[in-house]
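Dear support,

I submitted the protein below through the web form. The confirmation email said the job was done, but the results page showed an empty box. After a refresh the structure appeared. I'm attaching both so you can tell me whether what I see now is the final result or a partial one.
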Amino acid sequence: MTFSRVHFILLSLAGILFLILYFVLSINKKCSADDMALLSFVQQKGVLGAVADRYNNFCARWSADTLAFLMIIGCSNKFFLFTIRSFTLFALIFSFFLLLRIFFSTLFQAKMNNTTLLLYSLQLSACLFFISYDVDEVWFWYVSGFTYLWSIIMGNFLLRIFFSKKPNLFYFFLLLILAAYIAGAAESYAIIFILFLVILFILKRKNIFYPVTNQLQKKLLLSAIVFLSLFYLITIFAPGTWERKDMLTHAGFTAHFIMAIKAYLKIIFLLTPKVILYLFLFGIPWIFIGETFSSERKTELKKLFSFLLKNIFIAGIVILVLVFPASWILYDVPPARALSQVSFFISAIASYVFFCIGYKFYLPARISKAVATIALTGAVVILLCQIIKVF
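What the results page shows now:
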């Protein structure tokens, strides 16, 4: 993979500035009120007592709670939050790195150099960061990070394992651990993961998207579905799950359905437009990789509109599926932290769309380079402005 010197510098600078911004914020952001309340709760009950109490009386997020409560013991250290937040970001970047490497090697039988993979893993992480509907709530609340962001990270690792060429007992053990965490971290996320894996299994059986699904290990995929479903039963039948449900609004089927649709429309038309700019700034550079693997049969540029329209339509349906469970249960728009799965999907599909523009459409080199340069420059400027603002 080769870039012009200017583009490589801009990509590297954007990645470095994003890390600086994130680390500075990680140092400056204090515990939220919710986190402080939970800290006090853990100090009173002990780790296992706090997990058991929430499992029986409020919510059954037993895996996320256990990990968060175990580690919160070290909160007296002044670098505690910075360390946890930094580790979370590195784990996310690494999970993207692994997925991108397997994606390109599977589709194009090409091994990309690690520097390029790292730069684009940073691009994807920065995109997810900036299009989060509430950055503080998603990235810097202590417990919500273990609940939602780590569900995404574990899901990425889970997906990577399915492409293992020689599955062994160790991979099945990893599946067990990852499935347990996902199933016990966030109820609505677990439902989506199970649905996603079932769809993958069907695609595998039907040989749809053959270049990708052919590489999936059926035994690992089926095992993950079984593990996730079994562990999810521990969550869904917990006393705390039903206690919390009783605290929420009670309404009929039609009322819940209408409210879920209203929440979806608010997310699409009120919340998402505010972050569209970042999708362009951090998404457009994917054109470079698309052009590197450029298809031998290029599509005319006039067909780009129909391609974009189709992907927007698909994205709209997927987002509806992602938000529907939480909207239905809460009878309202889910909080920003519970929408990180939506932000992740939007980041991924935007990257994919711009990659496809470079890969399959005939786009004059001078135009693609100019547009990408503007986007990268804009990203660098915004990152600099945010860093200055923090200081």
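Response: this is the final, complete result; the empty box was a page-load delay. The first helix runs from residue 5 to 28.
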